[in-house]
Amino acid sequence: MEHLSTSDFIVTTPVKLDEFPTMRDTGKSKKEKKKALKEVGKKLAGLQNTLYAHGRYGVLVCLQGMDTSGKDSLIREVFSKFNPRGIVVHSFKSPSKKELQHDYLWRHYVALPEKGKYAIFNRSHYENVLVTRVHPEYLLFENIPGIEKVEDIPADFWDRRFNQIGNFEDHITQNGVIVFKFFLHLSKEEQRLRLLRRLEKKEKNWKFAPGDLAERQLWEKYQNYYEDAINKTSFPYAPWHIIPADDKPTARYLVAKIIYEKMVQYTNITEPLPDADLLKNIDLYKEKLSKKEI
Description:
Elements: H1 30-54, E1 58-65, H2 71-78, E2 87-91, H3 106-109, E3 118-122, H4 131-134, H5 157-174, E4 177-185, H6 188-200, H7 210-216, H8 219-233, E5 240-244, H9 248-263, H10 276-290
Helix pairs in contact: 1-9, 2-9
């Protein structure tokens, strides 16, 4: 899997999603892919421990994708070796009554990672320029001044939100949050097969909702708005990565590899040195413990 270059998946120039592959042939078996993920996941977990001890940076991983794109299983597999104390997962669904009493970014601000920790956003602040753009009537629940009905939404509304999101990410990166943004790029046919499996396998029935089919009818709209959001918000300080998601093991490996390769560049993230008194007396402490004196 070493031949996969992570630079192939970062968005640095405008992209067209219908020209971007949803499958990447690695020439490797499923077993080999799982082994490769295990190896990079172990190294990534080691870096997490150092990040936690260092306590000056936080890491935010944003996962976006159509239903069934594999977000949940990716989180489970990629971060399986992490120390639980250093990682928190947030799944953003419809805003609560309390969240709607604030601006749309508030609930994302309060979920940002503490210094030394990872926060995973399973769906993220980008839902506010995706789902609400496909369903603009949802904006009415936000009680935005001047917007009483859908027809009141100004022509530049979404571009203003893109700018607000850009400012949000610029602000947090300047204050020690390392941001990763992944779009799990799934084909419409693969989604059909995955939805069908949810119906065919009894243990997966709970994951299916009739609304999934209604949203599937809006596939083209979602793709257009994803493309627009990615092109307008892939910043040097918080770039998007488009991950071919038709094959889950490959997608998981790519996400892990991208995070690992970025994190090793932070050579200033190191474990803190013990204080002078500890170093001076370390042999004494070892002797006491060895002799069971205390």
